[in-house]
Design a protein that fits this description.
The complex is a heterodimer. Chain A is an alpha+beta fold. Chain A folds into 2 domains: 8-64 and 279-448, no CATH class; 81-262, no CATH class. Helix content of chain A is 54%, strand content 18%. In chain A, the strands form 2 sheets. In chain A, strands 1, 2, 4, 5, 6, 7, 8, 9, 10, 12 and 13 form an 11-stranded mixed β-sheet that branches. Chain A has a two-stranded antiparallel sheet with strand order 3-11. By secondary structure, chain B is α/β, with parallel strands linked by helices. Chain B contains 8 helices and 10 strands. Chain B has helices at 48-55, 81-87, 104-109, 119-132, 148-159, 178-194, 206-209, 232-236; strands at residues 4-17, 20-33, 37-41, 63-68, 71-72, 89-92, 166-170, 199-203, 214-219, 222-229. In chain B, the strands form 2 sheets. A 6-stranded mixed β-sheet of chain B has the order 6-7-8-3-9-10. In chain B, strands 2-1-4-5 form a 4-stranded antiparallel β-sheet, with helices on one face. In chain B, β9 (214-219) and β10 form a beta hairpin. In chain B, α4 (119-132) packs across α5 (148-159) and α5 runs parallel beside α6 (178-194). The longest helix of chain B is centred in the last third of the chain and has 17 residues, at 178-194. The chains are: A alpha+beta, B alpha/beta. The A-B interface holds A 2-8, 11, 14-15, 18, 328-329, 331-332, 334-340, 342, 442-444, 447 and B 53, 56, 58-59, 79, 82-83, 85-87, 91, 93, 97, 99-102, 106, 109-111, 113-114, 119, 122-123, 140, 158-159, 162.
Amino acid sequence: MKVKDLGVLTRALRNVSRRKIRVLLVVIALGFSMAIMISIPAGIVANQKAVEGLSDDYNEIIAQMEEEMNKTLTLIECSLTGGFRRFTFAGTEQFLNESAIYDISSIQGVKDVVPFLEKTEGTMQTVERRGRTFNILVPDYTIVGVPLNSSLINSYAVLPTVVTEGRNLCEGDSGFVLLSLNNTEYFEAGVGDKANILGRDFTVVGVYESTDPLELRKLYMNISDAQAITNLEGKISRLDVYAENQTCVNDVVKAISEDYPDLYITTYEDRLSQLQQRANMYQTSLANSESTLSQMQTTVIQEVGIAIVATSLIVLFTMLYTVRERTKEIGVLKAIGFSNWNVMSQFMLEGILMSLMAGAVGIVIGIVGAPFLTSILLPHINPFGTLGLSQRAAFPGTPGTSLSQSVSATPDPQTMLLAFGAAALLGAVGSLYPAWRASRTSPMEALRYE
Amino acid sequence: MSELVLETEKLDKVYKLGGRQVRALSDVNLQVKKGDFISIMGPSGSGKTTLLNMLGCLDKPTYGKVILDGVNITKVPEKGLFKIRKYKVGFVFQTFNLMPYLNAFENVELPMDGTKKSGDEKRKRARELLKMVGLSEREEHRPQRLSAGEQQRVAIARALANNPAIVLADEPTGNLDSKTGHEIIRLLGKLNIDQGTTIVLVTHDSLIASRAGRMLFLNDGKLLAKEKQGTHLLKKELTCPNCGREIQPDDTFCPRCGKRL
């Protein structure tokens, strides 16, 4: 290629392209340093956003729960099984006679009683743990029978509220079912279709949605239909008892406990305490995340610092070697009238060009390898820290469980531009001393150099 | 009397080698007139290259002064010497010292970098010089694709790029075979005659030295009083000293009587 104007840039470019293998190796090495400089800050930004998102999620959940709870100040939940069960052990579902409805309704201070019949259907599996054999029911769906009495379903949280297709159940619906989106897939039935549940066909009236994964397992129908298909006539599994006002809740609880000592009873205060526990767990996990983030920032400063020093040193040693190798050439340049500044600028430009090439390579490596680099170079955020699995399991649907894996870090254009600028600057810094040394070389000494 | 281009007065150069003082040049008084073609001959270690380095501002004398084109270069500070090297001196080295990453044309253009010449002027001058040294067809070739003689021709063209007051050639034929060496000397002679270029050449080869106009002798750092006239002056007359027939400046033998010129 014929050069029209032989300037310092052209000469620098020719020199850089002269020793291709060496330049390639140096550029790759520098490129990795640059990639670290690009992807690590991107990783921390992504983690920061993730933790901010986690905090928002937590706050939203607590606020929602508080709102829901405030609607149920007078609600007393009664069931024969307490707490949360992810798996149902065979034969552990317990039911009580529906006569309890009438007994409890007659207690002074009770306004309404809403019975539920919940029966989980699934596949039995045998598992062995510590030498013992368990039969576990892996659930496919849960039948929820509710009283379709308009005064109850209009006043209390009996049915799902977010119906996305069709309609909700209403008074007098018999032979109808309300499915979740998960159920429609399982039964392969949509609105208006027939779904065969335990041998009986039900018409799907609507489909509901929920953010709670456990809720999505449930299908709703009239309680008498549920009792019929599950062969549990006259049985219920739990009761929602509504007191006339908040002040008489304790008296009602006392009376129920006396009549039904086997019932687990949960009041607003219990739920509040549970909410507090959940809020505390969220606070702890947020604090864990923020602590890791802070540790991450220190690590980032160290790693980026190392990358900067490594880049400068690579440029420095490469250029020192180049200057030594080209001593005679420097002598000739000076003999034919090149000033110290001319020589220095040429060598500095070569260092900068090499770093800019490395910057471009680093950006490519950074874009492609940012998730990998951040996953090996940054500590992982584990929001749950020392919190045990059981504690987490007690609060299903807790956000942030996926945060312990690496978040997706993508360098933004500003970081890339900054990295390109940093490459030029580091190239200049790294080649400053070698270029200065080259410019100070005595032409006579340099010409003798072999 | 022609004007003096280069003059040295009582030039001394003393080096310190392992605590011992070594006198490389001693009381060298030299006068070079414009258009001179001078060879300085001497054995290895006689101080030829040291003297050339002093004359070309590559090194400073311990004592004495060097006046180049009216400028006392011994008084010019280090950072100002590059201008003298750029505009007043042209170097031709024994090992050619061309830039391997530039082609012949660019090598000739290189010393003009940073001068006030426009891009077109630089290219025109480089083309003109390559034509002058007979390498118009090879301007795109990089040094590794040129023969040793061609490389030295490019180096001569490069030395003339900024039209210097003097060309200093350090053993310019030292790395060439005898035939090519004589061709290079003939080229220098031709430039001296055609362009009036002032040339100072140092060599240890008496035959090469004899092709200059004046032959000076350096021994143990001292310029000897004896001075010989070289054959170049005869060629300047452009007639054969044997038969009197007109000859061309680059003729080696007389085309009529065959006498070596």
